[in-house]
Amino acid sequence: MSVTFGLGIFGVLISLFFLFLYISICVWGYRDARRRGKSSEYALLVMIGLLFFPVIGVIVYLLIRDY
Asked: What is the number of helices (H) and of strands (E) in the chain?
């Protein structure tokens, strides 16, 4: 029973880490767009895109953020 409990705790910690990473990526995208002088609407679109497509969204944003 203690092995199962330990694996459960490990799973919860990994899940919390990925949730924190997910939220951090969204906040970073919004702040980066605002810091680069983009409008708040554009920054909000970036954040929404990162919410729905986290991995592909980061790649696309890194490719288009200088334009």
From this structure: 3, 0
